[in-house]
Amino acid sequence: MAEFDDIAEHYDQTRGGESRGDEYAATLDGLLPAGEGPLLEIGVGTGVVALGLARRGRRILGLDVSAPMLARAVQRLGAVVLQSDAMEMAVATASVAHAVSVWVVHAVKDPERLFAEVARVLRPAGSYIVCTGQRPADDDVVGQIIVEMCLQVDRRRGASRPRGVTAEEVLKWAASAGFDGSVQTIGRQWMWLPADELLAIEKRSWPAMRELDDESLDEVTSPAVEALRALPDEPGLRRATADVLVLQRP
User: Fold this and answer.
1) Bridge partners of 245?
2) With a threshold of 0.85, does the pTM exceed it?
3) If you placed Cys at 140, which of 111, 136, 200, 216 could pair as Cys (CB 3.0 to 4.6 Å)?
């Protein structure tokens, strides 16, 4: 069982769905070279980013280890997805023009092996664009609450990378497979309800939460739940920055 299997049913509802996916697709499309593809999304999940890329004329192939997530991707994309571990991809050598990953690298147990596999499946001069995650703005109250909660969850479960991954770490892993590249910082803003994050906590929509027993999870999430419930239950503007790495093999 993959770590995202149990959250597939609620993933889109608690993670912004197609509108959020389309925002990332617009960013990725603007950074990718023109061409027919195929474009491989590693960690395609429920297909929301890939859908936005397909709507922009990209020929998509999606890969993910979670069958329940892929079942939802098939509904959006059709039969252009496959179940496979990103560290041993069931993709032919030098068969894809470019590749992308959105919020995936932090969840991979052996990042250097991931980048070696990407280098294998890419054609010469192919690009790999990686979105590592995002950082809430200082005045994004909801975002700051969630960051602190996730940090406490990771500390309790003894995560090896409790802060997530940095752009510098990704560049180092990429270099081990012969990639070099640059980092671009993009700004995001969107409307969100505190109730949306309360639902995500209730559904344990972060896989890391499922490593804790009920008592431990309640202990580390209770401060966040109380803080979110104290906020006005109305739409609010959220703002964040995200690092996007554009990688190529010389």
Assistant:
1) 130, 183
2) yes
3) 136
